[in-house]
Amino acid sequence: DLERAQAYFDDIIARDSRIEPADWMPEAYRKTLTRQIAQHAHSEIIGMQPEGNWITRAPSLKRKAILTAKVQDEAGHGLYLYSAAETLGTPRDELVQQLLDGKAKYSSIFNYPARTWADMGAIGWLVDGAAICNQVPLCRCSYGPYGRAMVRICKEESFHQRQGWEILYTLSNGTPAQKQMAQDAVNRTYGPALQMFGPPDDQSPNSQQSMAWNIKRFSNDELRQRFVDMIVPQAEALGLTLPDPDLKWNEERGHYDYGELDWDEFFGVIKGHGPANAQRLAHRRAAHENGAWVREAAAEYARKQAEAEAQ
Ligand code: 3HC
């Protein structure tokens, strides 16, 4: 009965164990995980666009091959995450339709344009770096399929972050124009990358419940702080600066203090008014339409296979 099921669920959470698809779960648990995993999947798929735009313009065959591999990884992460979301009962074409209809969220960071090749470095180093900070704790998410998907995804993100850092390192040690291009890309990406961790804790309606259910292991601000502490020495090693005059080591906190972020801009972006929201959705819709024939062919092939097996 419901009481026993709820008690069983509460005990699994209290023991910091795992909920699997066949287990009973509160509808609100199912709902918030479907919400988060679907948004995560959408982020991976939309995240392919800024980098995809630079594959044909990569400065060397090596860079082209690495960037192609990274974009392919992100497609795979998206499909992995749609599969994890489907185990909660919502079919992926329903989730994808929400994205196509402009009704679904995806990571704010991808609504900013990638203006130069150096952005490929800033995305790898900062965006994938932030993604790693956010995703490593998600490997211990109480929902089994999501936690397990994160283990595989985090391994590939580390390669993404390294190749980004290496692009910036090469540019920073190149000509003055290349160094300036790298610095400009870092200047544009730093703020929005810090906002990937979500709004400040006192403006985060989902955090408390997500933490009670061992979905979210650390608060938005805790992970943001961890990320800032990580990138300050890395920026020094790059010979680049971070665009934040308030950034300074705070001895008694044992962390770096950093400046206020523009949350009006953030909430505008997640409402759909970012610099590239319309472009990203238009591209995603066009890809869906251009790929319709593949879906039809696959469905027809599956039908014929089923027919043949039925005979
Ligand atoms: N972009 C867009 N929307 C965001 C956001 C962001 N960066 N941060 C928060 N939001 C939204 C939330 O979805 C929520 O709206 P909703 O209730 O309609 O879903 C609202 O703002 C309030 O935020 P909360 O802090 O209450 O929401 P969460 O508890 O869900 O925390 C989160 C936000 C930390 C992003 C959490 O959802 C999360 O950890 N998600 C999984 C990680 C993820 O999505 N990462 C994407 C990174 S990009 C990527 O991985 C691609 C890379 O490989 C290139």
UniProtKB/TrEMBL annotation:
Coiled coil: none annotated. The keyword Oxidoreductase applies. GO terms for biological process: phenylacetate catabolic process. The keyword Oxidoreductase applies. Its EC number is 1.14.13.149. Transmembrane segments: none annotated. InterPro entries: Aromatic_CoA_ox/epox, Ferritin-like, Ferritin-like_SF, PaaA, PaaA_PaaC. Pfam families: PaaA_PaaC. GO terms for cellular component: cytosol. It is an enzyme of class 1 (oxidoreductase). GO terms for molecular function: phenylacetyl-CoA 1,2-epoxidase activity. Keywords: Oxidoreductase. NCBIfam families: PA_CoA_Oxy1. This is 1,2-phenylacetyl-CoA epoxidase subunit A. It comes from Gulosibacter chungangensis.
